[in-house]
Amino acid sequence: MSNIPTILCCTNFISQYDALPHFLQTYLTEFKQRGYSIYDVNEQIPLQANNKNSFAFFIGQIPSELYEWLNVHFPLLPIINLYVDHPYYYFPFTEKTYPSYCPLLVMPDWTNALKNASNPLIAVANQTHISYHSITSNSVPPSQQTRTIDVLFTGSFTLPETIEQQFRQEQEKIYSVFKKIVSILENRENFELDTFIQECLVVEEQAKTQTFRFFYTYIDKYIRNLYRLKTLQALANTNIKVHYYGNSPKLLADILKSPANFYFNEAISFEETLKLMQNSKIVLTSAYQNNMALLSERSLSAMANGAVSIHGKSPFLNSLLKEGEEVISFSWLNDLEQLPQTIEQLLADTEKRQFIADNGQKKARTEFSVSTSVNRLLEKIELFRQQYYSLILK
Question: What are the residues whose beta carbons fall under 8 Å from the beta carbon of 2, sequence distance 6 or more?
Fold first, then answer.
């Protein structure tokens, strides 16, 4: 059997405007530089992919049928997916679908539900920064003094009420359960969404027959967009010039009543976003703790490109970064009233902005570079292999 290190990937299941395609290509470029052969499963499948140096590597939404296909044709191949909103959304965890000999390594940081999965060989890199990375060019970013965008805010937006209406139309019988869950979460900041929803569904007789996936999808989307809307509302009609790039800019402008300090633009690619980051004094990321991928990658990429990153508080991410020296964070429940003042004071103090930007850039380009992230990933894969083979050889 050939020992050529091989990676199987898939590139056609992620959207054009999402950051994930850019992340995937960045990782694959790093793997190529390390001598790996890259094969897209839609084009060519190498016979040597089952050797001990190979694995399947995915980012984002991949159909469960593809995982099933890999299990059949490459039953010993470790499967890694760095960014999955929630495992129940994609993986039907049954012994039939994933026999006991199939290794599956899932990398997100919010997959606590995997601990109770039926497959004993599922491993989770839970609450680690193994896959966190920043994306940047090798060039030195311009100084804070020469940047022309005060605050950059990027991301998709859907009106929370629209999400609620969609849920009600599809599942009128359990709409009351949805309302109960979101009414609690609207007043909580630090929570594990998967665990919380499971607890709610256990006590609600009406919801017992409904899938966890259905609830998670709608509630995650509702809370995520509620955070964004409240953050933008706090900045409307202030002296802060906010440049918004995302879907539905006209809808958002109507909701905010077209504040004079906002510049609304259509969504752009992540590569274009990176260029804007290099011309932005501050990059604002309003994501909640459960939406860890967006929160970490946007924040770290902003830091790597010389902008000051201001993000929603995350106990985990804030444990890695020095508050006020490398990053600034805020509580969407407790700090929104003070957020405009915090940003205005920062914009008026170029020296302080440059201090935070320099420290953040150094941290992001060293401890959270793609190369460092790949090193952590390969170490985790090797540990997984050792644990896996020790189990199947018993």
Answer: 47, 48, 51
